[in-house]
Write a structure and sequence with these properties.
The complex is a heterodimer of chains A (338) and B (339). By secondary structure, chain A is mostly helical. Chain A has eleven helices and no strands. Chain B has 339 residues and is of the alpha/beta class. In chain B, the strands form three sheets. Chain B has a six-stranded mixed sheet with strand order 6-7-8-3-9-10, with helices on both faces. A four-stranded antiparallel sheet of chain B has the order 2-1-4-5. The chains are: A mainly alpha (338), B alpha/beta (339). Chains A and B meet through helix 1 and helix 6 of A and strand 6 and helix 3 of B.
Chain lengths: 338, 339
């Protein structure tokens, strides 16, 4: 099939995607969620008073001193300048978390600076799930209704047909994600400007926000490709939804429940996709099995190996997507289109 | 001569049938099963359709009609045999031949919230067909007035006509229709017949799979009858009827009870069927006229009673193949029958 043929197929699929009821319902649902969250934050969050800000500054100054002392002590022990006392423990890599700031202590007021990471994580989950469902439905209903067979009568090159569908689903979801994330950001910045604070957002912070946004969109695309591939392999939307729910309920939640019952370190974290998604989004995910504090008298180690870097998280997600997409294309080429 | 949008129309008069529109030779299709044994759906099936004809494709339920069509159209992979569409070997040249073939296989699938026009426009966009064709085919199948209505409001017959419109959209040289009369009322059946005849008159070859045998007999130039995945009869309709004709003739006279007695006394095998007689195993129908004429009984009608339905039932054993209501038969029946 030549480039013109592929373009025609893509154009038809793009048009089909945005004509489908499922797509329109998904847009309404995630739009409604944004409106409700924005409205909720507007109602429940308030701007702190001058007294509260002063108190937070005082508390942050004293907490900051403690944070500095701990970090200094840990670094000295780690570098061998000082010895650890009995019963003294240190976190791996002397990681005591972010230094306390007045804003971090004003937890009841809405701060865009403090809360955008969690808001973006929420958006990522919403968009990834929406992408999974849209991608699964887009190809699944074609298989189950016989629409795929009809389409193959027009365009017998199966790889091109499935590729055009996948491309249209991903491009569509990419567009939806970019627009939605833009609205999401603008809405919460509006909330912060109106009844909270948007201060302390430096150029670096905005750069980080932008990169996180890119990763959120990429995760939505991965969700779309996963849903699409599983539904194409099972030739039904419900296959993807069933596999997705079963994975979450049995594997992800099941492992959490199991390890909490036996009261040990959750060794399954390294084998759960959610860990790598968290690493991809937050950049600082650390496995429980690797994060035990250095106990009595030992020298704290610097973080080594996998420490939840977004690159490694991205690699694992990309590998899972690549395997399933490849399987879907191989099945498309080899199996009968009944 | 209408050249159609692709300018491919062949004039059957100027270029008399050279390359068959469709050739199937020794087609084999076996469904594999993970847990059960493989099941043969098509077993060395042959079919030939000449260009410009309307060809009927008949067979009982489970005989392999839809499997044959799906394999021919590249939806299923053949396990053996050769197929050619418009002279091109398929599935090797399926992509090349696809723009020249319009088809509907089994029940057409549409999204209920899409309009008829939207449905066809998506197909036209995917196939690079000019938008003007949409209005033409909607008009041809009588759906122009309902083009902007959602398909969920269409009747079964209207959906069927929309499916035919989608097959006509490419202005194909070969039109393959699986049960095109499903859901159509008598007027719709007649419209469909006129539509297909008009397409054939323009040079289009039409292959129809159907269970409405009278309709096939009325519209088709030739037929292929299959049973249990194999061709059991093929050729012009008259030829297939002749094969099934056992020498039975319908005889109408004024006093058919007396006529029956005269013919029986003369040694004929006669049965009374309502208001007429059926004379069986008749070598020369003129003998009936003579035998009744000398007894002052004048024949009003003397005609062979063989219909396609008779031929169909006698050739296919009168019912579905083994594994009725299943798409395939057991793989070992052909061996059992020494095939």
């Amino acid at each position: 099939m030549n480039a013109a043929g592929l373009t025609q197929l893509f154009a038809a699929e793009w048009s089909r995607l945005f004509s489908r009821r499922v797509t329109l319902i998904a847009l309404v649902l995630i739009g409604t969620l944004l409106v409700l969250l924005t409205f909720g934050f507007t109602l429940t969050r308030s701007t702190p008073t001058a007294t509260e800000i002063e108190l937070a500054k005082t508390n942050a100054a004293s907490a900051g001193e403690v944070w500095d002392r701990k970090g200094d002590r840990c670094s000295k022990v780690q570098s061998g300048l000082e010895n650890a006392e009995p019963n003294e423990s240190f976190p791996r890599g002397c990681d005591y978390g972010p230094r306390p700031t007045p804003e971090s202590l004003l937890t009841y007021g809405f701060s865009f600076h403090r809360q955008w990471p969690s808001l973006y994580t929420t958006a990522a989950i919403v968009l990834a799930v929406a992408g999974f469902v849209l991608g699964a439905s887009f190809v699944g209903v074609e298989w189950s209704s016989g629409g795929m067979a009809s389409l193959l009568l027009w365009a017998p090159r199966r790889g091109a047909v499935l590729g055009a569908k996948l491309l249209a689903a991903c491009a569509g979801m990419g567009l939806i994600s970019v627009v939605y994330l833009g609205l999401w950001t603008a809405a919460f910045m509006g909330v912060a400007a109106g009844s909270g604070t948007v201060s302390q957002m430096t150029a670096d912070e905005f750069g980080s926000l932008l990169l996180t946004g890119v990763r959120v969109v990429a995760l939505a695309l991965a969700g779309t490709a996963l849903g699409f591939s599983i539904a194409s392999l099972g030739r039904h939307t419900s296959t993807a939804l069933g596999v997705g729910v079963a994975y979450l309920m049995i594997y992800e939640l099941g492992a959490v429940v199991l390890f909490s019952v036996v009261e040990t370190v959750d060794y399954s974290q390294k084998y759960r996709l959610s860990s790598y998604i968290a690493a991809w989004l937050t950049k600082d995910f650390t496995f429980d099995a690797d994060a035990g504090p250095c106990r009595t008298g030992c020298v704290p180690e610097a973080a080594t190996g996998f420490s939840g870097s977004w690159q490694q998280g991205g690699l694992v997600i990309a590998a899972v997507v690549a395997i399933l997409v490849t399987a879907a294309f191989v099945a498309m080429r080899r199996r009968d289109a009944r | 001569m209408d050249d159609g949008p692709h300018g491919r129309r062949r004039n059957p008069v100027l270029c008399p049938a050279m390359t068959p529109a469709l050739e199937i030779s020794g087609l084999v299709k076996t469904y594999q099963s993970v847990f059960g044994k493989p099941r043969a759906a098509i077993d060395r099936l042959d079919m030939l359709v000449e260009p410009g004809q309307i060809h009927g494709f008949l067979g009982p339920n489970g005989s392999g009609k839809s499997t044959t069509l799906k394999t021919l159209l590249g939806l299923l992979r053949a396990d053996g045999g050769e197929m050619r569409i418009l002279g091109e070997p398929v599935p090797r040249q399926q992509a090349r031949v696809a723009p020249r073939v319009g088809a509907i296989v089994e029940a057409p699938a549409f999204f209920g919230n899409f309009t008829g026009y939207k449905t066809l426009s998506l197909l036209a966009k995917a196939g690079g067909v000019p938008k003007q064709r949409i209005g033409v085919v909607l008009d041809q199948v009588g759906l122009a007035d309902r083009a902007e209505d959602p398909i969920r409001s269409y009747s079964l017959g209207m959906r069927q006509r929309l499916a035919v419109a989608s097959a006509l959209l490419k202005d194909p040289e070969l039109l393959i229709l699986d049960e095109p009369n499903n859901g159509l009322d008598p007027a719709g059946v007649r419209e469909m017949r006129d539509l297909l005849r008009a397409q054939a008159d323009r040079g289009m070859t039409v292959l129809i799979s159907s269970h409405i045998l009278a309709e096939i007999q009325q519209i088709c130039d030739s037929v292929t009858i299959i049973s249990r995945g194999r061709t059991v009869a093929a050729g012009p309709v008259s030829q297939v009827l002749a094969v099934a004709d056992k020498g039975a003739y319908r005889v109408r006279v004024e006093d058919h009870h007396r006529a029956a007695q005269i013919l029986t006394d003369a040694g004929a095998h006669v049965s009374i069927a309502g208001d007429h007689l059926v004379v069986h195993d008749l070598a020369d129908p003129a003998w009936v006229s003579h035998a009744l004429g000398v007894n002052d009984l004048w024949v009003r009608e003397l005609a062979p009673v063989a219909q396609l339905e008779d031929a169909f039932l006698s050739l296919t054993g009168g019912g579905p193949g083994r594994g009725a209501f299943r798409p395939v038969d057991d793989s070992d029946w052909s061996r059992e029958e020494g095939a």
